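Exercise: predict the structure of this protein bound to zinc ion.
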Amino acid sequence: MIIDAHAHMMTAGMFKGMGVKPPKDFPQRMADSMQHTVEDNTKAWLEAMDRLGIEKTVFMSIAPLNEEFSSFINSSDRLIGFARSNPTLPDAIDVLKKELKMGMKGVKLYATSGEFNVGAKEAWPFYEFCEKNRIPITIHFGVTIGGKCDLYTGNPIHLSKVLSDFPDIRFSIAHFGAGFFREALMLKYKVENLYIESSGTNNWLPHQDNFLTLKDVFKKSIDVFGTQHMIFGTDTRIFPDGYREHILRQQQDILKELKLKDSEIEDIMYNNANTFLGQ
Ligand SMILES: [Zn+2]
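Solution:
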């Protein structure tokens, strides 16, 4: 059984909701792919998930309070939605309450986008709310989010104090920290509430000052995080390129090459995501 803990669904309305126009050089096939309806998306996702043996997929919203995203994740209990939040805004909790009413089950923070610092004290009431309501939080640190990133706020080190002050919030670092792998490993020191997540093409690897392969990254993550705190994901957007089956296969192959027990592979591919989600 598989849970894909990181994916995206996008429509033209969601792009608009982000307050940005598609760039001029936006490939036509991407622009065309945005025109799919919620129903098109639900059908395509569930078909791909059935074919690949994926029970549930977690979708990271790119636009807050988006009706299309909400109706998508509410169209099947196999589709799980995470709200995009800025925890430092004065109305962050009010917006999240609305998102929860719209069906969201967790929060995604885009720390690399430079809008906020996850370690800013203004975010503490938001974290208190998440801890009290048992809401899991996934964070995108590091690169791989386009050219406009702020690697200062995108450094996972800012999460250090948050992890110790909120031991009952489950946090997940997406894409192995997308370049801040060393920092992600350091954060796990004597910390129980932190997960590391494998999604994406991992094209941050060439920007490291070492020669780690993706297999090395898996091995080191398992050494430090253990098989109970690693989560699988693909970061698929199904339109226009289809399900990222090659990433699923690549990561399954690595887990086999590392000679993990079947039960440990099942933890990484399925059970840990359920624990992280609180399900
Ligand atoms: Zn993503």
